[in-house]
Amino acid sequence: MKEKIIKKATDMFLKIGFKSVTMDDIACEMCISKKTIYKYFSNKEKLIEEGTEVIHQNIHRIINEIVSKNYNAIEENFEIRKMFKEMFQTIDTSPVYQLKKHYPEIYTKMIANEIEECNAVFTQNIQKGIHQELYREEVDIATCVKFYYTLIFSINENTQLERDVHDLEGKALEYHTRAMATPKGIIELEKQLSNLI
Q1: In this structure, what are the phi and psi dihedrals at residue 76, rounded to the nearest 5 degrees?
Q2: Number of structural domains, the chain?
C-alpha cells in the first residue's frame, strides 16, 4: 500500500503541483481514508521526500538504460534530454521550481543527491566523447561537468514553466557540446539538432 500511495501522490505532485495537492486529494483519488495515508507518512513533507526519491531513482534507472544502449556520447545526451521531455511533457509548472519555492529543505537534499549522480553521468559521457574523438582531448572534464550541471540546475530552479525549461535545456546542451566538440563532434551535433526540427 505504501508504494501505491507514493506512486499516486508522485503522479499528482508532478501533474498538479507539490503545493496544490493535499492529503485529502490523494485519499480521494485512491478511494482510501486519509488515516491510511497517515499510517505510512506522518505528514505531507515525508510523502514528498519519499516521492522525490522515487522520481530520482526512476530517472537514473532510465539514464542507465540509455547509456547501456551504447549511443555515441553526443547522441546519448540528446536521448537523455528526450527522455526528460517525454517524462515531463504533461506538466505546466517546473517540478524543481515548485519544490525549491515551497519545500526548500527537501529541494536542498534532492539537489545534493542529483549533483553526485550527475557528476558520474556527465564525467563518463565526456570521457566516452573524448575516446570517440567527438570531444577535444584537452577538455578539463571536472570544470565542464561543473559548468554544465550548474547551468542545468539554474535553469530548472529559476524557470517556472516546464516548456521554457525544455527550450533552455536544449540550448544549454548545444552550448555545452559546442564548447568541447572536435570538428567530428560538431558534425554529430548538427545531425542531432537537425533531428529535433
Answers
A1: -55, -45
A2: 1
C-beta separation of 177 from 148 below 8 A? no
Residue 87, pLDDT > 80, answer no
pTM above 0.85, yes or no: no
Asked if residue 133 belongs to a domain, the reply is yes
Specify if 32 maps to a domain. no
Residue pLDDT, tens place only, 119-172:
889 999 999 999 999 999 999 999 999 999 889 888 878 888 878 888 898 999
SS (H, E, C) the chain: CHHHHHHHHHHHHHHHCCCCCCHHHHHHHHCCCHHHHHHHCCCHHHHHHHHHHHHHHHHHHHHHHHHHCCCCHHHHHHHHHHHHHHHCCCCCECHHHHHHHHCHHHHHHHHHHHHHHHHHHHHHHHHHHHHCCCECCCCCHHHHHHHHHHHHHHHHHHCCEHHHHHHHHHHHHHHHHHHHECHHHHHHHHHHHHHHC
Find the mean pLDDT for residues 2-15: 90
Q: What is the CATH number of the domain that holds 175?
A: 1.10.357.10
Domain that holds residue 166: 44-196
Specify the pLDDT at position 144: 95
